[in-house]
Design a protein that fits this description.
Blueprint lengths: L11 H13 L2 H13 L3 H25 L5 H10 L2 H33 L4 H18 L1 H26 L6 H6 L10 H12 L18 H30 L2 H6 L3 H10 L4 H31 L18 H17 L2 H28 L14 H23 L1
Length: 407
């Protein structure tokens, strides 16, 4: 009896919203203040620089997703490019770990947001929401991604709301720019670079799109398009939000805020920021759902490559989803959210993701160097793209390691 395949149910629009939901997530609702704290009024430039750095690796992922449209994408890419099975398995495990820790961290944040509206103990809130999200992810890919897409629209509406209410203040951009010191000044450039380093994490998420490759219609064509569309839309939104932020509030007040967009909304409108807080809660939940879907598909793909036990690669005929892998990931998310020190693991996860980015870029460079042809030639980038992406990721790895050691 042939193995049950995953259901190909994701169109280009659904896949793009899936990616956007993961990129936007809760990051911009928190990170904008931290970026302004480093770069000051040059924060939009930091976001622009971060977008350019992220796009290098995004283009690499776009080509590799067209060559090898398989679940457990990064692990497959490293295997095809570098041919070291142990390293490929490690990459897959790191991606699963990143998804579990990210979802667990998000669940803790969700419990905090929920208590603004409902005085429910954090442990109960986490258990209930993980059960709901795990059940939704196991229910079906079309259904779960449709919910994620709907919540992504709400996230985008929240950012557009901030841009809209701050639009009148953006008229001062011209006079503000005239007063700024030169970018090349020694007092300015380090802040811009450090701001770009922080802003880079607001763009992480596009890489998860490749792990639903076996559930995408025409993945050789739609995956590269969706990756680049999601990155482009998020870059435009981030740039506009950062412009709204620096013209709507003094930089020092924005940098000191734990919920900068809520503070910005309250300052401009004079109203309680309940709407933005509610949208932030939806953004948090959406990020957790997408991470559970992603991690379960990596487990599925690794099982199909015989890098994990076969039970994780079984697809339930009724839902056409890897139920065992999904339930396992949900249970691990729950355990991590309730009992493990998430902060330290989250820092390690961001470091590991950058290592994975460097390895994926190196893999594409080696494939191109040896003249390998993939499944499809629909999307192809110049050889300098993975080379530059490798060095950019490596620099970020070194920077983070130095900051951790000196901090």
């Amino acid at each position: 009896m042939p193995e049950q395949p995953l259901r190909r149910a994701l169109s280009l629009p659904l896949l793009t919203f899936y990616g956007l939901g993961n990129i936007l997530g809760a990051g911009i609702y928190v990170l904008i203040g931290k970026v302004v704290g480093e770069a000051g009024l040059f924060a939009p430039l930091s976001f622009l620089l971060a977008a350019l750095l992220a796009s290098l690796t995004a283009f690499t992922y776009a080509e590799l997703s067209a060559r090898f449209p398989l679940s457990a994408g990064e692990a497959v890419y490293v295997q095809e490019g570098l041919g070291i099975r142990q390293l490929s398995s490690l990459v897959g495990v790191l991606i699963v770990l990143a998804g579990i820790v990210s979802a667990a961290t998000i669940m803790k944040g969700f419990a905090g947001y929920l208590q603004v509206f409902v005085p429910l103990p954090a442990e109960i809130a986490i258990v209930l929401m993980v059960i709901i999200l795990g059940g939704l992810a196991a229910w079906g890919i079309a259904e779960s991604v449709a919910v994620a897409a709907l919540v992504t629209v709400v996230e985008m509406a929240g950012l557009l709301l901030i841009i809209g209410i701050a639009a009148p203040g953006m008229a001062t951009l011209g006079s503000l720019a005239a007063e700024l010191p030169p970018v090349t000044g020694t007092a300015v450039l380090p802040g811009i670079l450090m701001g770009a380093f922080l802003a880079f994490y607001a763009f992480i998420g596009f890489e998860d799109m490749v792990n639903v490759a076996e559930e995408v219609h025409q993945p050789e064509r739609n995956l590269p398009r969706a990756i680049l569309l999601a990155l482009l839309i998020s870059s435009v939104l981030y740039l506009l939000v950062s412009l709204a932020a620096i013209t709507g509030l003094p930089a020092d007040r924005l940098a000191a805020a734990d919920a900068p967009l809520a503070v910005l909304y309250e300052s401009i409108t004079g109203s309680e920021p309940l709407l933005i807080t509610l949208i932030s809660m939806f953004a948090v939940v959406n990020g957790a759902l997408i991470q559970i879907i992603m991690a379960s598909r990596v487990c599925y793909g690794m099982a199909r490559q015989r890098w994990l036990p076969a039970c994780f690669g079984r697809v339930y005929p009724r839902t056409q989803t890897p139920v065992m892998a999904t339930v396992t990931v949900a249970v691990l998310v729950l355990l991590a959210a309730l009992w493990f020190p998430i902060a330290a693991l989250a820092k390690a996860t961001s470091f590991f993701l950058l290592v994975v980015f460097a390895l994926v870029n190196l893999s594409l460079w080696r494939l191109k160097r040896h003249g390998a042809t993939g499944v499809s030639d629909m999307f192809c980038v110049p050889r300098w793209v993975p080379v530059t992406g490798f060095f950019a990721s490596a620099v970020f790895v070194v920077l983070q390691a130095v900051l951790e050691l000196t901090g």
